[in-house]
Design brief:
The chain is of the alpha/beta class and 282 residues long. It is 47% helix and 19% strand. Strands 5, 8, 9, 10 and 12 form a five-stranded mixed sheet that branches. A three-stranded antiparallel sheet has the order 3-11-4, sandwiched between helices. The chain has a two-stranded parallel sheet with strand order 1-2.
């Protein structure tokens, strides 16, 4: 009789354990299906139309690389609705766009969440100068910041360069935007036009810049990072872009995209093997 009771108790115990295992397996499968369902919902990433195709291409690369973790996405190009500071304000209000790119500063990192991977690999810290023809001799005599303070540059009123150059007491003429700066420089309102070491090569091939020449002896440098930015409340997008960029760095696709742009490759070569006098702007 005892053996019968023991065997019966064992069977009941095994039945209970089996039931719990089955329930756990079903719950796990349900959760997995639920997670897949969540991941299957595509996100929309609104970004600004760009003069340079690299930035949307790098954003797409980051979203592609993170798709296996975060799921599908759609990128939508949005028009500019004003100068860049206006676009940053819209992003802080979670309107019109979801991501922007640009130079970082303490104030901008309070305003927006920076994804702290320098998407220009440091090239944004260097500036070459466009000058007017037949003025090279004037610039060849410039050896330091004090000498640079005797000539006038032209910049955009809201560019990060402008704040740095103003703090270094460089005489400046400011324009409302990029196109106005070109037009004003064409009228010789300033002696030089500082351009990014990666920007200037393409610009010199365009009709707008045909009246300018590249200064041959100087290079400006200041410390700054160039990041993607999102709204502080959009932690999910920030994590996704950061994850995707890191994966692209690890498998080499970041550098592959970066150096596929001739202007970046040339800027990198000039930065790495320069004969120019570097003027540091603290």
């Amino acid at each position: 009789m005892m053996n019968l009771h023991s065997r019966l108790a064992s069977l009941i115990f095994l039945f209970i354990i089996g039931s719990f295992c089955l329930l756990a397996a079903n719950a796990s499968q349900t959760n997995t299906q639920s997670n897949k369902s969540i991941k299957a919902q595509p996100i929309t990433v609104n970004y600004l139309t760009s003069l340079h195709s690299y930035f949307p291409a790098l954003l797409k690369l980051a979203l592609d690389k993170s798709a296996a973790i975060y799921g599908p996405y759609t990128m939508i190009e949005k028009p500019w609705l004003g100068p860049k500071q206006r676009m940053r304000k819209l992003l802080t209000e979670q309107k019109h766009i979801d991501v922007i790119w640009g130079t970082s500063s303490p104030a901008r990192e309070q305003e927006l969440k920076a994804i702290k991977i320098n998407i220009l690999k440091g090239l944004n810290q260097y500036r070459l100068l466009l000058i007017h023809p037949n003025t090279q001799d004037k610039f060849s005599r410039i050896n330091n910041l004090a000498a640079l303070q005797k000539v006038t540059g032209i910049v955009g009123a809201y560019w990060q360069d402008t704040e740095i150059m103003q703090r270094n007491q460089l005489p400046l003429v400011t324009a409302l935007n990029y196109q106005n700066a070109i037009a004003m420089f064409s009228k010789k309102r300033a002696d030089y036009f500082p351009r990014g070491i990666y920007e200037v090569w393409h610009e010199l091939t365009t009709p707008e810049f045909s009246a300018f020449v590249l200064e041959q002896t100087l290079m400006l440098k200041y410390s700054a990072q160039y990041y993607f930015f999102v709204n502080h409340n959009n932690q999910a997008l920030a994590e996704r872009i950061e994850t995707g960029l890191k994966l692209a760095q690890q498998d080499g696709s970041f550098d592959q995209l970066y150096f596929s742009y001739p202007e970046f490759a040339k800027g990198w070569k000039v930065m790495s093997n320069t004969h120019r006098k570097i003027i540091y702007l603290p």
